[in-house]
Amino acid sequence: MSQSETYKMLVEALGEELSQKLCRAFGGQKIYVPAEPREASPIADFLNYGEFRELCAAFGGERLFIPLGLEGRRERAMAALRSGSSVKEVARAFGYTARAVERLRRQM
């Protein structure tokens, strides 16, 4: 499964905000998600109990590869373009060059 497919799966199950939080904390790593939230899990250091419980409900008992989250940045930048943000605004907000944003816009 590609990183973008994995990211989309995370967003569908957990929402954008929690998916981004996971990518920032564990991006590029494979993590074990326990069936039930446990304080001893390294995940507990990065998520509050409700978020951890949501993750366990969706992926409990699985080893999950957490993508770097760059695809999320790309998707958010494209969504901003679709909603009317200028090339300059998108470049500044998402850390792209104006030329890269122009390429994104052509791909839409």
Q: What's the rounded overall pLDDT mean?
A: 89
Instruction: Sketch the topology as an H/E string, one letter per element.
Output: HHEHEHHH
Number of helices: 6
Structural class: mainly alpha
Main β sheet profile: 2 strands, antiparallel
- Low-confidence regions: none
Global outline:
elongated
Mind explaining what this structure looks like?
The protein has a two-stranded antiparallel sheet. The protein is mainly alpha-helical and 108 residues long. The protein contains 6 helices and 2 strands.
Name some characteristics of this structure.
9% strand; 6 helices; mainly alpha; 60% helix; 108 residues; two-stranded antiparallel sheet; elongated
What is the topology?
Layout: H1 3-14, H2 16-26, E1 29-33, H3 49-59, E2 62-66, H4 70-82, H5 87-94, H6 98-107
Antiparallel strand pairs: 1-2
Summarize the structure.
This protein has 108 residues and is mainly alpha-helical.
